[in-house]
Amino acid sequence: MSKRKQPKQGGTDVADDEGEGSDVSLIDVDFEFFDPNPTVDYQALKRLSIQLFQADAELFHLNELAELILSQPLVGTTVKTDGKESDPYAVLTVLNMHVHKDHPSIKALSAYAQSKSSAIPAFQATIQELLSPTGLESANHVGFVFSERLINMPVQVIPPMYRMLADEIQWALDDNEPYKFSHLLFLTRTYRLTAEEAAVLEASNHNQRPSKRQKGRPPLQTGNTNSGADVSNGGTSTYSFHPEDEYIQKFASHSIDYNLSSAQPRDADAFGLDTAGRIMLVPADRLKDLVQTLSDTYAVPQ
């Protein structure tokens, strides 16, 4: 199941360091795809895990989670620019929550998903059926999809990563390895804006040339909040950090947006984004169609 190195051209904006008014230029970057590297990827995986789980990161035993991801180097993909020994800028993999049911990170993820799905009883019932101690003994295995990348990584790296993941799952099945899933579980990041904040950001995106400060800000995406899962307050709306999440959500049988357990309350004068989370449960037999949709939507410009 060895992965071939697959270079891919991608553009990225780079601003001159001499001032806010400097012109923005476009440079070409070779993004290369590698198997996870147990020798060098550990620290980067921990950093990406902290970014993914945000204020709740300490709940998930990140040292052990990084080790678990790196223990299966033939499933999953990292994206790098300086060769196999460099730090990954993006990671995508899947972990079998049934095979690793006694692992501290998987136990924490299972408990977290059951707790955060409680606002939608049908969702929680499904999660409990799949991930309760009894469910974890069943033949319906759940794969936890770990997907995170550095800010400003182009979304066009995502479709090939998912194509490789689907291929690797099939190769693993051909070798009688435990990657036969009934469902895929996604945890991802969201943020919330008031109507006023959204209008200001929309105007900024349309009317101003990006400055160095603006380039660290997530792009405004069309947000979705499922019935029964709206955790916004006073007219706020929920948006995805990762644009592909809007498509993953469309393939999900259940989805919920939730408040982070360890986040501090955000008052009207607080600086920074009001961040939250989203859980999505996707039937595994929809993965092929999801991969095709992402490939069609985020094709690399020719």
Automatic annotation (TrEMBL):
Keywords: Nucleus, Protein transport, Transport. One of its GO terms (cellular component) is nucleus. GO terms for biological process: protein transport. Residues 1-21, 202-239 are annotated as: Disordered. The keyword Nucleus applies. It is found in: Nucleus. Its main location: nucleus. Pfam families: BCCIP. The keyword Secreted does not apply. Residues 221-239 have a biased composition (Polar residues). Involved in nuclear export, actin cytoskeleton organization and vesicular transport. Belongs to the BCP1 family. This is Protein BCP1. It comes from Rickenella mellea. The lineage of its organism: Eukaryota, Fungi, Dikarya, Basidiomycota, Agaricomycotina.
